[in-house]
């Protein structure tokens, strides 16, 4: 059975994107050797996309063996750093993934650059009543130890599909970019 997420061709290299997690040293966006970093761009006050996506990822990871689950590190990059303070973001991420990485880039240019490298989209604006509004894509990006996005799950991908693909990735299988032979 083929992978259920999709592969970009050419592959996307993201290890040059570095961002500070709240209160810590700069994080290079690449997995630990033998594992995967699953990156998501979202925000803590999101009413629907973020909770559903993170719940699906949590379910998929929980279905792996304990050893394999430990090889998957979820990382959430906030697209709303003005409201997602370091403690708020960390608490939110750790509510889903105790070993997850909360990434808060306060510099708007660096945040936009990071999102663009991944192909993530987001937009913030103030509505007519003065309230901050946020819109964002909901993809999950599986990044290997070399900093390559090896697979992307679009918004709405369920836990069964993510689980299937994670299991294959953790077993050493890699998707082939379309058109490659």
How are the elements arranged and paired?
Layout: E1 12-13, E2 18-19, E3 27-28, E4 36-42, H1 49-62, H2 66-69, E5 72-78, H3 86-96, E6 101-103, H4 108-118, E7 122-126, E8 132-136, E9 140-143, E10 148-153, H5 159-170
Give structural notes.
The chain is of the alpha+beta class. It has helices at residues 49-62, 66-69, 86-96, 108-118, 159-170; strands at residues 12-13, 18-19, 27-28, 36-42, 72-78, 101-103, 122-126, 132-136, 140-143, 148-153. The chain has a 6-stranded mixed sheet, sandwiched between helices. A two-stranded antiparallel sheet has the order 2-3. Helix 1 (49-62) packs across helix 5 (159-170). The chain is globular. It starts with 11 loop residues before the first strand and ends in an 11-residue tail after the last helix. The relative contact order is 0.27. The model has no long low-confidence stretch (mean pLDDT 90).
What low-confidence regions span 5 or more consecutive residues with pLDDT below 50? Answer: none
Q: What's the shape?
A: globular
What is the count of DSSP helices, taking H or I runs of 4+ residues?
5
Can you list the strand order of the major beta sheet?
Answer: 1-10-9-4-5-6
Give me the oligomer status. Answer: single chain
- Tell me what portion of residues adopts beta-strand conformation: 15-25%
Helix content: 25-40%
Radius of gyration: 16 Å
Kindly state the number of beta strands: 10
Distance between the termini: 18 Å
């Amino acid at each position: 059975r083929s992978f259920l997420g999709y592969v970009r061709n050419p592959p996307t290299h993201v290890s040059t994107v570095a961002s500070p997690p709240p209160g810590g040293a700069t994080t290079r966006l690449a997995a630990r050797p033998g594992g995967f970093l699953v990156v998501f761009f979202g925000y803590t006050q999101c009413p629907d996309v973020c909770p559903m996506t993170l719940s699906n990822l949590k379910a998929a990871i929980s279905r792996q063996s304990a050893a394999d689950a430990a090889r998957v590190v979820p990382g959430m990059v906030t697209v709303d750093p003005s409201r997602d303070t370091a403690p708020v973001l960390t608490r939110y991420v750790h509510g889903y993934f105790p070993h997850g990485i909360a990434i808060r880039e306060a510099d708007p240019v660096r945040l936009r650059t990071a999102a663009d490298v991944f192909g993530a989209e987001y937009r913030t604006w103030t509505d007519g009543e003065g309230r901050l509004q946020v819109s964002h894509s909901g993809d999950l990006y599986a990044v290997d130890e070399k900093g390559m996005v090896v697979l992307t799950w679009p918004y709405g991908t369920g836990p069964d599909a993510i689980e299937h693909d994670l299991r294959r990735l953790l077993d050493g299988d890699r998707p082939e970019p379309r058109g490659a032979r």
